[in-house]
Write a structure and sequence with these properties.
With 421 residues, the chain is of the alpha/beta class. The protein is built from 14 helices and 17 strands. It is globular, with a radius of gyration of 25 Å.
């Protein structure tokens, strides 16, 4: 069958948003515009524990989080923020800190100027900054702090803490329609209206539109897609994506991937967080890994060398290739904080660890460096391919260690300073 025209290659659409700057010292994390889609995360430590919080922030930053949000909910937490920043600076971690404020943020930012200065961005929830006459005044105090200290602001609406006065007004308006909408579209409208109107109010108080990031968090995949499609048509503010309570483990990972992939492919979203509930004993950094993998799978960014591996079948009853794949993947991730500085471009490298002769040689040839391990009943030999050409065949009990050395040597040769020069 002949094709009249070539098949179009799929690619995410170009985003069209203002560009915010989230700064600390010489570090300037751009969000929106032509900047890469940014990964961020949040600590789950008690912020009053400055050392413990700083350690977790460092772990998240080294895992790839480009901004880290911390809870600022009490005077004690606000007092701890400058010390957290100081500890991070001493460790050489310049990741910007985002303060998460609810209910009393106006007071904390006003009464603790050192906290306001140490943070790089403020997260404001317009649903709980106050009611009635207090709302605009207390919201205004937070915006005044952002203007004074030249900080970016995320106006983050959440359907679990939506402005009830606004929702009630829209519900009353809906009841007067000839054909009232269902409740869910009214909820969508309330989320979007709260975010956009709060942003316009912040602008009227002196905050530049480029320093405003919006989010409308919900917990359902289709709800998130619906809200953000509409929100992106209503404004050009940079947008933060994420399900508000994605869940634990596989459920949270799949739900976040499904929702974020659709929106990012449509050119919607400038920064993301995957809000995973950690399983017992699981590192907080797992949500950073998942967020990075989503962006890398879509071709939007490269964070670590990708490892292609077959799932295994009756031809691969040995677990050797599974063990080697995990070993190589763990090794690459552990080395990336150093390699990012030492070997620019290494994050785009492709590695293949395959389990038998069916697809092993072919996948290995397509990768930058690959190994095809012997399947059940195959000759005990593992050919290694470098840049599409067979380089060497490994045999014996130390295949894993020998292949890791080959990978290290390849990286140094291809991405080292001499290769760049």
């Amino acid at each position: 069958m002949d094709f009249l025209t070539p098949v179009d290659a799929a690619a995410p659409r170009v985003r069209n948003s203002y560009q915010a700057h989230v700064r600390w010292g010489a570090r300037d994390v751009t969000v929106g515009g032509d900047a890469p889609v940014r990964v961020q995360s949040m600590t789950n430590t008690d912020t009053v524990d400055a050392i413990g919080t700083a350690i977790q922030v460092k772990e998240l930053a080294l895992a790839g989080s480009e901004m880290v949000r911390i809870t600022v909910n009490t005077p004690e937490a606000a007092q701890a923020v400058p010390y957290i920043r100081e500890q991070l600076d001493r460790m050489g971690i310049d990741v910007p800190l985002v303060g998460d404020f609810h209910y009393n943020g106006h007071r904390l930012l006003t009464e603790f100027p050192a906290c306001a200065e140490a943070l790089s961005k403020y997260r404001i929830n317009p649903g709980n900054v106050g009611k009635g006459d207090k709302r605009d005044r207390q919201f205004g105090q937070m915006i005044e702090a952002a203007v004074r200290w030249n900080k970016a602001v995320r106006i983050g609406v959440n359907w679990g803490s939506l402005d009830q006065e606004l929702l009630a007004g829209l519900m009353d308006e809906n009841s007067r329609r000839a054909v009232p909408w269902d409740a869910k579209p009214v909820m969508y409208q309330a989320l979007i209206t709260s975010a956009v109107e709060s942003a316009k109010l912040a602008e009227s108080m002196g905050l530049a539109p480029e320093q405003i990031i919006l989010s409308c968090k919900v917990s359902g995949v289709q709800d998130l897609i619906s809200v953000y499609r509409a929100l992106s048509q209503r404004c050009r503010y940079a947008l933060h994506l994420g399900l508000t309570e994605a869940g634990m483990g596989t459920k949270g990972t799949v739900a976040s991937s499904a929702a974020l992939a659709v929106l990012l492919q449509e050119g919607i979203g400038d920064t993301i967080r995957v809000s995973l509930t950690p399983q017992p004993g699981e590192a907080r950094t797992q949500e950073v890994v998942v967020a990075s993998e989503i962006l890398q799978a879509l071709g939007l960014r490269s964070f670590v060398p990708s490892v292609t591996a077959c799932p295994g079948c009756g031809r691969t009853t040995s677990t050797t290739f599974q063990e080697l794949t995990k070993q190589i993947d763990d090794f690459l991730r552990a080395q990336m904080p150093v390699w990012r500085k030492q070997y620019p471009g290494v994050e785009a490298m492709k590695v293949a660890v395959m389990g038998c002769i069916v697809n092993g040689p072919g996948e290995s040839k397509h990768a930058d460096i690959g190994i095809s391990l012997p399947g059940t009943g195959e000759a005990p030999a593992a050919p290694v391919y470098i840049d599409g050409e067979k380089s060497v065949t490994l045999r014996g009990d130390n295949i894993a260690q020998e292949f890791q050395v080959i990978v290290e040597n390849y990286i140094a040769k291809r991405f080292g300073a001499a290769a760049i020069a």
